[in-house]
Amino acid sequence: MPDLKDLVDPGTTAVVTVEMQRGVIGDRVPDSELKRAVDAKGVIPATIRLATAARLAGVRVVHATVSLRADRAGLTINNRLMAMVIKNPEQMLEGSPAAELLTELGPEPEDIVCNRIHGLTPFTGTELDSILRNLGVRTVVPVGVSVNEALLGTCLSAADLGYRTVLPLDAIAGVPEEYAAAVVQHTLALITNPTTVDEVVAAWKS
Question: Residue 93's closest CA among 25, 147, 28?
Fold first, then answer.
């Protein structure tokens, strides 16, 4: 693994939170397996710690969110996961409290929110790549959910687009947890630079 301090140089690094929203893992979800996994692992406090340190170090924080139009325009139902989404007309509705970023994460004035209304991952068909490139970003630090889908897709797309990826394993989650661990071991560990929030924060302070 390259030197972490060089990888997360503040001038060329951005933290990207993935679907860390009230209706995914926050107070608008009464109970879910994913929310329980996030809470048990301490993903939200870890992400708050990372985002706070990033802003202090001059590292941009970008929030990749998802919200769906009420009429589902622009959304293609081409897989079972998207078919499940449309069964609940209120799920992640554009402009609803559920679609909001977790309150604990802001967004702060200097943060950037990049929303999508279709698809399964943050890069495809959105402004995320252009935003990062225009900021001079070379290293992405993705955190959030889910290892099963959006987080995994973020890391794969980042690799395809030429970014280096530093992945704090204590700030991501997926379910079942055994499956998420296997994805980390057999896929994410091969395409990212696995680390922890504390190690990234320490690199910014050194």
Answer: 28
